[in-house]
Amino acid sequence: MNNPHDKLFKAAFSQPDVVASLIESLFPAALRQAIRLDSLVLTTNSYIDDELNEHFADLVYDCLLDDGMPVQIALLLEHKSYTVAHPHLQLMRYLLNRWQQDVEHGQKLTPVIPVLIYHGTDTWQHLPFAASLLGMNALVKPFFPEFDYLLVNLTALSDKQIFTFRNRFLTVSAALMKHRQDKQFADYIRQNIQRLMQGIAVDELMSVVLPTFLYLLETTNLTGSDIVFIFSTVSKETEEAAMNGADQLRMEGRVEINRKLVKGALKLGMDAETIADTFEMDLAEVLSLIEQVRQEKP
Fold this sequence. Notes:
The protein is α/β, with parallel strands linked by helices. It has helices at residues 4-13, 16-26, 29-34, 87-104, 159-162, 168-179, 185-197, 205-219, 224-232, 236-267, 272-279, 283-295, and strands spanning 35-42, 56-65, 70-78, 112-118, 150-153. The radius of gyration is 22 Å and the shape is globular.
């Protein structure tokens, strides 16, 4: 997962309260009222195949409606920064992948609510599937599928609306993805960091600051020191969280460099002891990295 938008999306929307806040703020009223927010459970499922991988990243939640009916909410982050001509075709493939699993397990098909999250610069036109057809006639209409999806167009949301979200991580992630293509994105962060971080509990700071730190590092020209300084203007606790985040990222970076060294050394036929001696690494770490390399997909 090298896409910075995917990383931020997964970090934020893996938290059920972020999704609950999204539902409260942006879902249609009748559907919002019917969903039991306390029943939201993040699953480990993904229905993205190789073809859909270029279009979406997904997170899937199980939940219940107020009548006890189980449904799934599929959050799909659109990868492209421009609109696509026929989004229903990709969504249909996604739904079929989901329902194929039901068929294989001999189960009835699970209702799925697709939620497409878009943060591109082009204007997204949310049209019915019938608009993609050459024409429509009452006689042939029964032979074409008709379904809809919920569109969360972050680019079209006003800052005023974003800052009214109950969950602050939803506010932060929505604001970052909305403004990330601004020419003055870094200035936007400097000017709004206090508003963005306002109201985040101290024990929740790290879960927000670390993905935000990483996103800024990968989408701007800001250095790690620049980002720590920006966070320092909020509070001492936020500065400490940013510094801890920087240390954690440096450690992860060192591990990744060592993993690449081990992978290259294995290709040269070196054994674990030789790798450890050559690169002055701990043998236990080398053995652990060798196991990781062997488990990688070819």
